[in-house]
Fold:
Amino acid sequence: MIEETTNQAPTSDKLGQLLPTRRFGRSKERVTQLGVGGYHVGQAQDERTAQEIIETAIVEGIRFFDTAPSYQNGRSEYRYGKFLIPKYRDDVFLITKTKARTAAEATAEIESSLTRMKTDRLDAIMMHAMSEAGDPEERIDAGVYDAFIKAKESGKVRYIGFSGHLSTKTNLRTLELLGNQVDVSLMPVNVVDPSDSDSFVQNVLPKLNASGVAPLAMKTAAFGNFFEKPVKVAGHPEAPIIPARITMTEAFQFVLAQPIACWVSGMDKPEFVIKNARIAREFNGLSHEEIARIISKVEAFRDNREVEGYRKWG
Amino acid sequence: MAVSALPALGNSSAAQRTGIPSRTVGNRKGTIPAIGIDGLACAKGDMDRSRTLIASALENGFTFFDSSTSHIEGRSERRMGEILGTHRRDSIFLQSRCLARTKRVAHTELNLSLARLRTDYLDSYLIDSEIPGRTDEQLEYPNLDIFEAMIEARKAGKTRIIGIRAPMNTKHLQQMLELYGSEVDVVMVPYKLPDDNEALRKARRIGAGVILDVNKDAQKAWLKGPASKSPLPDYATSWVIPVSNPKEIAKLAGLARSLPQPSQ
Structure:
């Protein structure tokens, strides 16, 4: 846990230099502004690569690790249990999620996640992937959030929240229903999003900030599509957004320029950790003009479900 | 699904009531209905579709429902829990399985299955002997001592029978069978696994029941073939089949009722 002391943000811990940290919502705690997305740790080609990703992240000063039980049937959580937790549990912020639809299921799934990761406590738990209208009501009415509160009271988790990548309305509705009981929320933040007719950055992020919720940024390269997917848009050559339209540094500096607590990045090779950590370490803010300039370079890709493929996921 | 005591498992009156035969498994720890309904097939599409399929299965006498913690990230178990939760627990045969790697996780995953299925016991709980990558080619195998979690769960009354599910590669099934022998009540193997497969023969030698896994082609062939022809080899206890609509379910039920009641 990185705590503020007289408003001074620590720059190192016992493991070494930290990446720059940011305030975690309304708490007095700070998190590194770059975090490891667990899906890609589970997806890394073998156990050794997964271990290298985790070790590299620690060396680079990252202390924030996200995961979920549904990633690769638990492989992501098992790999944290094998390579992250035994050495670094006290030094990192650990967050997982659950797709539980009832209180009993949420309680049971938290236990399963703890067991897979070989720890007795999470830093945060989120309702995973809030989807369509009615989903927040259904989960909350069935006691999922109550189960989170109980887990908090019993010391198994410190912060609670939700994630959602499909609909800004659903994310806002969840926030409305739970109000300031929400500590943390994971949502898409990327350079195309502000141009979308239904933008998470424009519509959801300010509300999270106003409520003191710690916003976590995901899909910051649209689940890799910015790098890998050639998309045809009138007036542009059919090529991936990075590097055809913008650089990787521009894309991720845009993310860091938003009022988020942590940029959660999926990195399935150690070299990606090093590249991203460098961007986070060297980030020195962007002016409004620079942000507007980067957004305008990819505006033509707005509302494009081929680029923002996560908008289609069920 | 309130349960005051563990009922007798799938007794012969169930077979008389539904007309679908049941068969003895696992050194006579109980019986399993000869035909099970694939929970994954029931969980596809919207909730109304799931309700229709499961209601139709029940109306037609099917009582054995197979699921897994991994089916659509728990949706299959969740829907079964919601839909079957209004039925008498002892009128249903519930099987689920998990892809756990360690003994401790197998315990917590069983509790998760029970929570999703809204019950306090399963009729059958299986461990997968191989964990395929859902999104890539990576394969993993559980620690061999994982079966001890199954034995403990059976002892605690959380499941009536326990077993192992294997893919075409039965190497790890074979290892677990060598280690745990007659503690294994049932194995679930691919429908097209050769009769002379070594692990299958070992399972039969120790008296374990044999559940044949989902096979769409074999299901179609059964629907089209002569009613007198049983799709089950004589050693097979049960077969889990996919279903896609009520008409198909009714026809399968007719065929299932004509299955021979094997000698117990």
In short: Residues 135 and 298 of chain A are 32 Å apart (CA to CA).
